[in-house]
Specification:
The protein has three domains: about 1-175, Alpha Horseshoe (Serine Threonine Protein Phosphatase 5, Tetratricopeptide repeat); about 180-260, Alpha Horseshoe (Serine Threonine Protein Phosphatase 5, Tetratricopeptide repeat); about 270-333, Tetratricopeptide repeat domain (Serine Threonine Protein Phosphatase 5, Tetratricopeptide repeat), CATH 1.25.40.10. The protein is built from 17 helices and no strands. With about 325 residues, the chain is mostly helical. It starts with a helix and ends with a helix.
Length: about 325
């Protein structure tokens, strides 16, 4: 009887462990899916929707470092600096050797009036950011430090990373990290400025899951940033082949075609996007530029007017002024 009872206990325990493993695995997959969706929304400048996704991810898995970083970026773009600061600091706790959070953290601290905190964060960013692809951001940080009345440090005078409370660090280590995957690895490589390696890893992620839209979107966006426009166009077209109703892919395709001086194709892509997202101001500006390039002045004026009427974000004021300038140009005899 004792042996039978013991066996039953083992079987029950095994069932419990299996159930727990299934639950944990399900939560991890759900978090990965939400993260991927958030990245796609971030790429499409849907910052509120993206933030909602990332908040769900970090609630389910507080140790998912990259989700905290993306949440911080989304919040900063929404001018929610207090929330962005908290997310940047959480990321820096989980990834203390990474430079990425300190630039955005410094900007947010400056916006909230914390000048000493902004100086500390930006000095730390300048001291530890060594990626060649990030040189422009280092120079920007130096410029802001000068405006704040502080000199940027040299590499030899690098300030130590600000210490984080030990309980938070211990708690972070105790939380299971999100499982490694090619897409997450590509994101990390991109953020560290390893462009070629990131491109290869994104391509690996696409090969592993051809319908994985965030991987295709991130790959195309990175190719655009390094001026490999034709390759980016093919990536966005392939994304639409696999995801025909993906608004973000349509928008990026339209932008890439316009940059590549293919305005007729850009107009078609913008118009298809607008059918899906008629209230998105950004598309009307790009549509106006493409129509203007084609000499379709009346249609261009209508697109610019729609953009000006829709765009209410304070951070986009310069684009509104640009559209208004183009309207004056188009109104000239």
């Amino acid at each position: 009887m004792a042996a039978v009872k013991s066996l039953r206990q083992v079987l029950v325990l095994t069932g419990v462990v299996a159930a727990l493993a299934s639950t944990v695995g399900g939560h991890a997959r759900a978090a990965d899916t939400a993260y991927d969706e958030g990245q796609a929304l971030l790429g499409a400048k849907k910052f509120r929707e993206a933030a909602d996704k990332f908040e769900a991810v970090v609630a389910a898995n507080p140790g998912f470092a990259q989700a905290w970083y993306s949440l911080a970026v989304a919040r900063r773009h929404m001018n929610e600096c207090t929330g962005a600061i908290a997310a940047y600091r959480r990321y820096s706790t989980l990834e203390p050797d990474k430079s990425e959070p300190y630039f955005g953290l410094g900007l947010c601290l400056r916006e909230t009036g914390d000048k000493p905190g902004a100086i500390e964060a930006l000095k730390h960013y300048v001291a530890i950011e060594k990626a060649p692809a990030s040189k422009v951001w280092v120079e920007k940080a130096r410029q802001i430090l000068t405006e704040l009345g502080a000199a940027a440090p040299t590499a030899a005078a690098a300030a130590p990373a600000p210490a984080e409370p030990k309980p938070a660090a211990v708690a972070a280590k105790a939380t299971p990290a999100a499982p490694a995957n090619p897409f997450a690895e590509a994101q990390a490589l991109r953020d560290r400025g390893h462009v070629d390696e990131a491109i290869a890893k994104y391509q690996q992620a696409v090969s592993a899951d051809p319908k994985h839209l965030p991987a295709r979107m991130a790959l195309g966006e990175l190719l655009l940033k390094v001026h490999r426009d034709d390759e980016a166009i093919e990536v966005f077209r392939a994304a639409l082949d696999k995801n025909p109703s993906a608004p973000a892919a349509l928008y990026e395709l339209a932008f890439a075609l316009r940059v590549r001086d293919r305005p007729a194709e850009a107009v078609d892509a913008y118009q298809r996007y607008i059918k899906l997202r008629p209230a998105d101001a950004d598309a009307y500006y790009g549509l106006g530029r493409a129509l203007q390039h084609l000499g379709r002045k009346a249609d261009a004026r209508k697109a610019y007017q729609t953009y000006v009427s829709l765009e209410k974000r304070p951070g986009e004021r310069r684009w509104v002024e640009s559209a208004q300038a183009q309207l004056k140009t188009l109104a000239a005899p």
